[in-house]
Every structure is written in structure tokens, then in C-alpha cells.
UniProtKB/TrEMBL annotation:
SUPFAM superfamilies, A to Z: D-aminoacid aminotransferase-like PLP-dependent enzymes
Protein name: Aminodeoxychorismate lyase
One Pfam family of this chain: Aminotran_4
Family matches, as InterPro entries: Aminotrans_IV, Aminotransferase-like, BCAT-like_C, BCAT-like_N
Organism expressing this protein natively: Penicillium cataractarum
GO molecular function, one term: catalytic activity
Length: 271
């Protein structure tokens, strides 16, 4: 079992969140969906902006970083202006990686990102599936220990990197994902995404037509991601424990993150 242990008294990590800047996003969130289907500000080119700020703030509270808390309490307009200074070309989409250290110093790393239909940034129930690419979804052969470094996203990501290596994923450009598992055999999350599976609701008699999309609960140890929060808030899914043994080879699933939105996937158990 792999684990990450970093002394809280002398943090050598930063809290992070990755999000998409896309000039086409406001056309979808302001006009392509109803007023309650996307969190404010709906006219921002930063995907799920308020959720990313909240995510970083929650991590700062968890690690008791007072200076970071003070920095992240700024209002959203000011936070957006902070991000604006990093965008090299406002006519193109970008992947932003926001990092905040224990002293409250924020930085933004910007890289090109793949062009996608902005509708894919909305929960799947708000649009027709128009994605040509389906990701392969593998399952890690080892387990990792849940901790504050799995619930909150930080630069201490050795466990996730190792899981990707074990799955044979060698590049972030690959259309593949690996699900990380805790010591009880429960799916925690994906290495870079939140997964969703079609399941009957535990404890309630249903037929096949009443199956719903479910995502692992935070008690399984996974990350409190922004697109996960969006999917839950909008009723796309509910939380339910999913074990490694529950997965079926070839079953379809959804994946999501703050840069690519929602992605079709298929579980691959045998290779």
C-alpha cells in the first residue's frame, strides 16, 4: 500500500486546482442553459470559477493555513482579475493550474488545452452526447491510503502518478484513466477525474429502467472535485459506494474534471 506523509509543521507542498479558461463558455452557460443549471458567475470564461475558489479555501482550512485562507477569501471579481493576468491570448482556451502556498502566495501556471465543444462542460443531461472519443478506464492494481492529500488536491501527488504508471498511462494527452482504490476495495476516484457509474440505488427495489448515475462518496477517500460538486448539485448523480468488485468489464461510465468537463468512458478490466 502506498501512502503520502508530509509533516504539517513544515509543509513542502501547495494546494492546487486546475480549471479551464474558454472564451466560448459564457455563450453556453449564459444562454444555452437555464439560470439554475450552472453556478454563478455564469458569464465567466473560467469553468466553475466559484467552485475552484471554494475548493482551495476548503483545503486551506483543512491544513490550517491562515495566510492562504486570507488570500482566498477575496471576492470572485478580484479572484477572476488575479487569473486574468495569466492569460496570454483571451481568444483561445487554456488550462490553468492555480497553486497557493502556506504563506498565502498564489501563482497560476497556464498551458494550451484541447479544443472541445463547450456543451461538454455542462452536465450530460443538459445536452446530447456528441463526443467522438471514449476514454479507456482502468483500475489500479494496488490500493492507496485516504488522507487529507486525497480529499484535497495538492502538489503531493506521488500516489496518483504511481497509479498512472502501473496502468501504463505515460502521457497526459492519452485518452485513458485509472481508478484509485482504498484498502477496503472501494473506488475513491480517478487519477485526474471523478467517475460516475450507472447503478441501482442500494437499499431500494428498482428495475433496470430506474438505475441512476452514482459517484463514490467522499468517505471512500476521494477528492472533493469541482465538476463532482456541479454534478451532485444539479442532480446528475448521487453518492454511493462502488467497489472494485462491482465494476463490469466493458461497462460505460462518465468521467469529469475542471478542464475537460464530462467525458465518456468504458471500463477495461482485462488486457
Amino acid at each position: 500500500m502506498a501512502s503520502t506523509s508530509i509533516p504539517a509543521a513544515a509543509p513542502s507542498f501547495e494546494i492546487i486546482s486546475s480549471l479551464r479558461y474558454d472564451p466560448a463558455l459564457p455563450n453556453v452557460t449564459s444562454h444555452g442553459a437555464n439560470d439554475e443549471s450552472y453556478p454563478a458567475p455564469a458569464d465567466s470564461p473560467y469553468y466553475l470559477l466559484s467552485y475552484h475558489r471554494d475548493r482551495l479555501l476548503n483545503a486551506a482550512h483543512h491544513f490550517e493555513w491562515d495566510h492562504a485562507i486570507d488570500f482566498l477569501r477575496q471576492d470572485l471579481d478580484r479572484f477572476e482579475r488575479f487569473l486574468d493576468g495569466s492569460i496570454p491570448d483571451r481568444e483561445k482556451p487554456w488550462r490553468l493550474r492555480i497553486a497557493v502556498d502556506c504563506n498565502g502566495k498564489g501563482s497560476v501556471e497556464v498551458n494550451p488545452t484541447v479544443a472541445i465543444d463547450p456543451l461538454n462542460l455542462l452536465i450530460p443531461s443538459l445536452h446530447r452526447d456528441i463526443q467522438p472519443t471514449i476514454w479507456k478506464v482502468f483500475v489500479d492494481s494496488q490500493s492507496i491510503a485516504p488522507s487529507g492529500f486525497t480529499t484535497h488536491k495538492t502538489t503531493a501527488r506521488d500516489d496518483y502518478t504511481a497509479a498512472r504508471v502501473r496502468a501504463g498511462i505515460t502521457s497526459p494527452a492519452e485518452t485513458s484513466e485509472v481508478l484509485v482504490v482504498n484498502s477496503d476495495g472501494e473506488i475513491m476516484e480517478g487519477s485526474i477525474t471523478t467517475p460516475y457509474f450507472r447503478r441501482r440505488i442500494v437499499g431500494r427495489e428498482t428495475d433496470a429502467n430506474e438505475a441512476v448515475w452514482v459517484t463514490p462518496p467522499l468517505k471512500s477517500g476521494g477528492n472533493a472535485g469541482t465538476s463532482r460538486r456541479y454534478a451532485l448539485t444539479q442532480g446528475f448523480c448521487i453518492e454511493q459506494v462502488i467497489t472494485k468488485a462491482d465494476l463490469v468489464d466493458g461497462e460505460e461510465c462518465w468521467l469529469s474534471n475542471g478542464v475537460r468537463g464530462f467525458i465518456r468512458g468504458v471500463v477495461v478490466l482485462s488486457r
